[in-house]
Task: inverse folding
């Protein structure tokens, strides 16, 4: 596709009305520029320029070629300028895959704040539990919790969020309050999916405890709701249950212990990102752990 570059050189020669003037503008040796135009003419099979010692003139074929080439070169330049503007000022559609409950209960205020900061961005969010394919589907970014699995994708860490144990005051009144992690074996513990153990830390010690429940759940929102309805103990990110804590519907259990912190990542298919995606990731990195 070298002829496309030569096409742009030809346009510069015609605009400058001389090889020397075009060479100075482009920053290319005069002899190299002249040779490139000669190669272009040989490739096309027609003479484009009449050369004299003082000036150049377009042939009939050269005039037709110049009019076409100028439009192509101008469009290419405009495309580069528009992409440069996108890099400088975020705009366009941001398509992201977000974890359902985490996005609704935790990220929504941050997304609203980000949208106010960048009015040129429109949003297409896919809030599902499925893991989208960033290679074959047109997503700009996916927010993922836990350690990234696909090493071929680019995972950028956003935050590490602590998880704690919670239950409703009524549940603890009826069932008793656990005094140590081993006591959880005698309680209803609402875990995600079919979790059979929880790993707990107190800053010095780490212990793994068996848990059991009458419920098998794949929804964080449902787990939290059942906990407020006195159905058991949950391990959850503090910010997700912030409203329930503030209202007294839930309170901390075994406050000296906490679960394994949850890592949050922004996953992309490439390192070359438009401004809208870069700013979204940067914003989440700066605010996610503070929300």
Result:
């Amino acid at each position: 596709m070298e002829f496309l570059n030569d096409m742009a050189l030809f346009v510069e020669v015609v605009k400058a009305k001389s090889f020397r003037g075009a060479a100075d503008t482009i920053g290319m040796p005069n002899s190299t520029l002249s040779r490139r135009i000669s190669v272009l003419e040989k490739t096309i099979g027609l003479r484009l320029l009449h050369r004299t010692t003082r000036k150049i003139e377009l042939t009939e074929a050269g005039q037709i070629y110049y009019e076409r080439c100028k439009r192509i070169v101008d469009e290419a330049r405009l495309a580069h300028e528009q992409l440069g503007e996108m890099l400088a000022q975020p705009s366009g559609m941001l398509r992201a895959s977000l974890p359902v409950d985490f996005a609704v209960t935790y990220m929504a205020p941050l997304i609203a704040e980000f949208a106010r900061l960048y009015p040129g961005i429109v949003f297409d969010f896919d809030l599902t539990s499925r893991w989208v394919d960033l290679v074959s589907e047109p997503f700009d970014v996916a927010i993922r919790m836990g350690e990234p699995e696909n090493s071929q994708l680019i995972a950028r860490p956003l935050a590490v969020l602590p998880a704690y144990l919670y239950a409703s005051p009524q549940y603890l009144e009826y069932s008793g309050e656990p005094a140590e992690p081993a006591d959880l074996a005698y309680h209803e513990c609402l875990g995600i999916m079919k979790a059979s153990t929880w790993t707990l830390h107190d800053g010095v010690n780490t212990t793994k405890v068996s848990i059991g429940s009458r419920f098998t759940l794949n929804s964080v929102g449902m787990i939290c709701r059942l906990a407020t309805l006195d159905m058991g103990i949950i391990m959850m990110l503090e910010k997700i249950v912030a409203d329930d804590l503030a209202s007294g519907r839930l309170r901390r259990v075994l406050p000296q212990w906490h679960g394994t912190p949850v890592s949050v990542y922004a996953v992309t298919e490439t390192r070359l990102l438009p401004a809208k995606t870069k700013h979204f990731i940067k914003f989440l990195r700066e605010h996610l752990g503070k929300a």
Residues 185 and 211 are 5 Å apart (CA to CA). The chain has three domains: 2-85, 92-154+266-290, 161-262. The radius of gyration is 31 Å.
